[in-house]
Write a structure and sequence with these properties.
mainly alpha; globular
Length: 649
């Protein structure tokens, strides 16, 4: 029974996608109701699979050559449930957000296709299955990014698709090398297979290339460039699942490769730790400087992915003692997904009223809206790591894993100083998180609106949207208040995916753990008061105005990637092609001169074009019939006929 539920989680939305588009040609209400019914069914199936506690597999032989395989249980079932929650909540808010919008039938079809593909990623038993559904998810979610078809959306979609294609090819190359080395791509059996492979450049090349595509989708530095543009361009409910769920598909791949191919590898752990620290700091700084609500939340997602990568790195560094890091990674993954499934749709509520995400235009919108203020406040405090909320629990576990590793390297002053510095970067980034979240909440819910601004809408949010966001926000409250009863069982459910160690009981509210959170909060308050208020806000006759002081020349996409892909690489390709052409033409010229040394006559057609007559008058050879390509074509036809003769003989 549960095997069929696993299959239905993937096949139901894939099969329902064309039906939703056809239903929309008759009635928009019929399409909306049908899509809501499908996502509700997906939610119930995922809930049944998660609550059963069962584990199993569904092989799909001969598909894609090696065959595909789905698997459920543990982390896979938990992530499939998160995807179902994200799509159901997003679907319930689409009707209000898309009121009067065009291209809705197309959007709903690809909305369901992306759900099925994402479920396939999370329920994959081997990396080939992960890759197939991962690429399907990348191409179907592209439609959500370019939905409005505005120039900024099309440009963001170009970047999104370019990163997906280039990095996807890298991952495919890595999988081919990995399969050649190990003979398997099954996630659960990959670690044992890797032990039989001699350590060397081949394994590192295979694992590194495999991770590239997953890291790009997760938004890790330096492949994060699509995230700050794609999220603001996509509809708010789509941004919620892009940030809350689809980014986790990339994390799933990184987690699988890191814990199975590079388990207990110190070098890999240090490399991943460096990437994680840069990602978390860069995302937080970009969010702090941003004056666009959705862009701030998108950059925040980059930063939080850095926290998760740090947790994966600590698992590699701590080895068999990495169960605390594993628990922190899993719980922060769940926390971030839940938080962004609230904050992005809440930003959509504001957009539906004011048609803008600019902080200078939406400032003060929520000042007299306590319902929306309470909905946003809960995930904001959680993401900031305030004690008593779920984000504090996962960040405490991640911080404790770093402290634990510092104790392990106490014998080396240099290593101790390096990892102590990494710990302070972790705490500093937590402070930057508090600062940009305080900036957002103060701007939208505490500051007065701009002078001369039109009065706000009395009915600013539909009942369906309000109840959906309220249920999600209220679900976060008990997680932080009862970590031993609610969050630790979730961690124990997901931990077997990466380690066999059992999670011991942890005291979350000891002075040592509270100290880290308090340091981050104090840093956040100082940054807000002395950086945001003094450098990023300017007072004028209309009140305060938020300034975007981030230097344009530091845009990695415009300064590095686009020139590299659009100018440098084509130029180098043209130079290489010209050199190859010159080499071939020169070789042919030398051969011709050697064969026809001192020969002035040529053989040219006379009356019958199939035969030749000798003439003493030279005649230039022109046209396709005398070209090198024509000769190659005839040679290819000859080879083809020979092969056909040998096959049919």
């Amino acid at each position: 029974m549960y095997t069929w539920i696993c299959a239905a989680l993937v096949l139901l939305p894939l099969a329902a996608a064309p039906v939703a588009a056809l239903a929309g040609t008759r009635s928009g209400r019929a399409r909306d109701n049908f899509t809501a019914a499908v996502t509700a069914g997906e939610f119930l199936l995922a809930l049944a699979l998660l609550s059963s506690g069962r584990a199993g597999a569904l092989p799909l032989p001969r598909l894609c050559g090696l065959g595909l395989e789905l698997q459920f249980g543990g982390l896979r079932s938990l992530l499939a449930f998160l995807a179902a929650v994200g799509w159901l909540s997003g679907t319930l808010m689409l009707r209000e957000y898309f009121r009067g919008s065009a291209h809705q039938n197309r959007y709903y079809a690809f909305w369901l296709l992306t759900l099925g593909a994402t479920a396939g990623v999370f329920l994959s038993a081997d990396l080939l299955t992960t890759f197939v559904f991962f690429e399907l998810m990348s191409f179907t979610s592209y439609v959500m990014v370019v939905h409005t078809q505005r120039p900024d959306a099309v440009r963001a979609g170009d970047t999104y698709l370019a990163v997906a294609v280039v990095c996807g090819l890298a991952t495919l190359s890595g999988l081919m090398l990995l399969y050649r080395l190990t003979g398997t791509l099954n996630i659960d059996g990959l670690y044992d297979a890797v032990q039989a492979v001699p350590p060397g450049p081949a394994l590192w090349t295979a694992g590194g290339l495999t991770v590239v595509g997953f890291a790009a989708k997760a938004g890790a530095f330096p492949l994060h460039i699509w995230l700050p543009t794609a999220h603001p361009a996509a509809p708010a409910p789509a941004s919620g699942v892009l940030s809350g769920v689809i980014l986790k598909a990339g994390v799933f791949g990184i987690l699988a490769v890191s814990t199975q191919v590079f388990r207990f590898q110190t070098v890999w752990g240090n490399l991943l730790l460096a990437i994680g620290l840069v990602t978390m700091v860069l995302g937080a700084v970009l969010a702090l400087f941003s004056v666009d609500l959705k862009r701030t939340l998108a950059c925040s997602s980059i930063s939080q992915i850095g926290f998760i990568l740090t947790g994966i790195a600590m698992q590699c560094l701590l080895g068999e003692h990495g169960v605390v890091a594993a628990a922190g990674t899993m719980l922060h993954l769940v926390n971030h997904a839940s938080i962004k499934l609230i904050l992005f749709p809440a930003a959509g509520v504001i957009y539906c009223c004011l048609h803008s995400f600019d902080l200078n235009r939406i400032r003060g919108f929520g000042r007299d809206k306590p319902w929306l203020s309470a909905i946003v406040l809960i995930p904001t405090l959680s993401l900031a790591g305030v004690p008593g909320f779920s984000g504090y629990v996962s960040k405490t576990l991640l911080h404790e894993s770093m402290v634990e590793y510092i104790h392990l390297v106490e014998g080396s002053p240099l290593l101790e100083a390096v990892y102590t510095g990494a710990e302070w970067i972790f705490l500093l980034t937590g402070g930057l998180t508090c600062a940009y979240l305080l900036k957002l909440f103060t701007a939208v819910f505490l500051e007065p609106p701009p002078r001369g601004c039109a009065p706000g809408h009395k009915v600013y949010m539909s009942r369906t949207s309000g109840l959906t966001l309220s249920c999600l926000a209220l679900a976060l409250l008990p997680l932080g208040l009862l970590p031993h009863r609610l969050m630790e069982p979730l961690a124990r459910l997901a931990i077997p995916f990466v380690t066999d160690e059992a999670l011991h009981e942890i005291s979350y509210f000891t002075p040592g753990n509270l100290r880290g959170a308090i340091i981050s909060i104090i840093i956040g308050l100082m940054v807000y008061l002395y950086v945001v208020r003094r450098l990023l806000i300017r007072e004028n006759e209309l009140g305060s105005r938020y300034l975007d002081r981030w230097p344009r020349r530091l845009n990695l996409e415009n300064r590095v990637y686009r020139p590299l892909l659009l100018f440098v690489l084509p130029f180098l390709g043209a130079v290489a092609a010209r050199l190859a052409e010159t080499l071939v033409d020169g070789t042919l010229s030398l051969i011709s001169r050697a064969l026809y040394h001192r020969q002035t006559s040529t053989v040219e057609p006379d009356v019958d074009p199939e035969f030749a007559a000798f003439s003493s008058k030279p005649r230039p050879r022109q046209g396709f019939r005398y070209s090198f390509a024509y000769s190659l074509m005839l040679m290819g036809l000859g080879i083809a006929f020979c092969m056909l003769y040998l096959i049919l003989r």
